[in-house]
Write a structure and sequence with these properties.
The protein is mainly alpha-helical. The protein has a single domain, classed as Ferritin, CATH 1.20.1260. Helices cover 75% and strands 0% of the residues.
Length: 191
């Protein structure tokens, strides 16, 4: 398993454990995808990605899908508008990453896009745990959302440092702003 996946999985596993303990004791939309992904002259030569950059894009595509899919389940379970609003934003995040996958000729790990199904087995297991934890109470659902956004922020910050491609850095920076706004929204709901 690559370093990014290990770090993400370890962070979320630890956070899932914390949520499990909490469960035992506690009983902003972004602009359209075109605004998230900078325009590129189609005639321009695209510099190849490093393996780290390629893995980062592939992982972020499924990480954004994980967020969207978890929020969809939690919205259906609890009916809280925050989950529907942020789920729609996560769809835009997925579209922005998909544009980059297409631009750099990478196969989409989220295809076919089946809710709750992931190629990355660690993300699949994590999805299952987060949905289970978030389904126990509204508070735990909001804590799951907070955890997802905190992890997304950390991963995006890491990926920004690992790429030299300005278009990828721009997309990651835009997604980072969105995730920071999502985190603030979850924190506000938890008060």
């Amino acid at each position: 398993m690559n370093q990014i996946a290990k770090r993400f999985t370890s962070s979320l596993l630890l956070a899932a454990l914390v949520l499990a303990v909490l469960a035992g004791t506690a009983g902003a939309a972004l602009a359209a995808p075109s605004a998230l992904t900078p325009a590129v002259n189609p005639a321009a030569v695209v510099k190849p990605l490093s393996p780290v950059e390629a893995q980062g894009l592939l992982f972020m595509r499924e990480e954004e899908k994980l967020a969207r899919d978890v929020y969809a389940v939690l919205y259906r379970t609890w009916g809280l508008p925050i989950f529907q609003n942020i789920m729609q934003s996560e769809s835009q995040h997925m579209a922005a990453i998909k544009t980059l996958l297409d631009r750099y000729g990478l196969q989409d790990p989220a295809a076919p896009d089946q809710p709750g199904v992931f190629q990355n087995s660690d993300l699949q297991a994590l999805y299952d745990r987060l949905v289970a934890t978030g389904s126990t109470s509204q508070r735990n659902a909001l804590l799951v959302g907070k955890l997802i956004e905190e992890t997304d922020i950390a991963d995006l910050q890491q990926h920004i440092t690992e790429t030299t491609h300005s278009d990828i850095r721009t997309v990651y920076a835009n997604l980072l702003k969105g995730s920071e706004n999502h985190l603030k929204a979850f924190i506000k709901q938890l008060r």
